[in-house]
Amino acid sequence: MIVLAGTIGAGKSSLAKALGEYLGTEVFYESVDNNPVLDLYYKDPKKYAFLLQIYFLNKRFESIKAAYRQDNNILDRSIFEDELFLTLNYKNGNVTKIELEIYKELLSNMMEELEGMPKKRPDLLVYIDVSFETMLSRIKQRGRDFEQVDDQPDLEAYYRQVHEEYPGWYENYSASPKISINGDETDFVNNPKDLAKVLTKIDNELSKLGLT
Ligand SMILES: Nc1ncnc2c1ncn2[C@@H]1O[C@H](COP(=O)(O)OP(=O)(O)OP(=O)(O)O)[C@@H](O)[C@H]1O
Ligand SMILES: Nc1nc(=O)c2ncn([C@H]3C[C@H](O)[C@@H](CO)O3)c2[nH]1
């Protein structure tokens, strides 16, 4: 099981798709297009932050359970990143202390369930590191209406916060082996040579771990 991690617009879904094709394995995408809460959250984070966190946590758990039933698969974003968003929402006053505590208890119960499963941890976490400027330009380029800074200038400060949290999160991540890809310098979406380099790097890491 390979999980992709990184800030908003880092390139997780794009790399997950390419990796899935390369390795011939199923990809479990993050629930975005059919998400009934995400656009509401971007309009009114105070009202919808807790609901969105619960929604994502539930979907993430569902994907992990489905992924564990098969030998090989790829997950677009890890369950370990959810707490980063939760804590940020708490800091920003969008989630109350009681909601924070209830969520953490639920998360810890869910993590205990995962401990009981045959495969407890991902085999490899692939982190895509991008600069703040790249993050903003990719969000703009992708063009999801509710994420646009041009329509909602306050979002820039939120994106900066999310971006600032990620390096420390990656540094502290220790649940599985991990590697980092430079998403600024490597265009694995439009440049086949760059994509080949990234796939080789991941392949080499899987070999080192005895997984190929
Ligand atoms: N390395 C890259 N080089 C060039 N363009 C990229 C790269 N990675 C992603 N993109 C482009 O940036 C946009 C965002 O990518 P993608 O949707 O894969 O990000 P994501 O990390 O899955 O985002 P989210 O966290 O919001 O789900 C897309 O338009 C994609 O084509
Ligand atoms: N608040 C919040 N909490 C999460 O756990 C979470 N996971 C993803 N997202 C947002 C980021 C992208 O807009 C979009 C796609 O990644 O969904 C989240 N937002």
From TrEMBL:
SUPFAM superfamilies named in the record: P-loop containing nucleoside triphosphate hydrolases
Residue span(s) of domain Deoxynucleoside kinase: 2-204
Gene3D superfamilies the record matches: P-loop containing nucleotide triphosphate hydrolases (3.40.50.300)
Transmembrane segments: none
Stretch forming the signal peptide: none
Residues that hold substrate according to the record: 30, 42, 53, 77, 82, 147
Keywords, sorted A to Z: ATP-binding, Kinase, Nucleotide-binding, Transferase
Residue numbers binding ATP: 6-14, 138-142
Active-site residues (renumbered): 76
InterPro entries: DCK/DGK (IPR002624), Deoxyribonucleoside_kinase (IPR050566), DNK_dom (IPR031314), P-loop_NTPase (IPR027417)
Highest taxon, organism lineage: Bacteria
Pfam families hit by this protein: dNK
GO MF entry, a single one: deoxynucleoside kinase activity
CC terms in the record's Gene Ontology section: cytoplasm
Protein family membership: Belongs to the DCK/DGK family.
Protein name, as recorded: Deoxyadenosine/deoxycytidine kinase
Native source organism of the sequence: Lactovum miscens
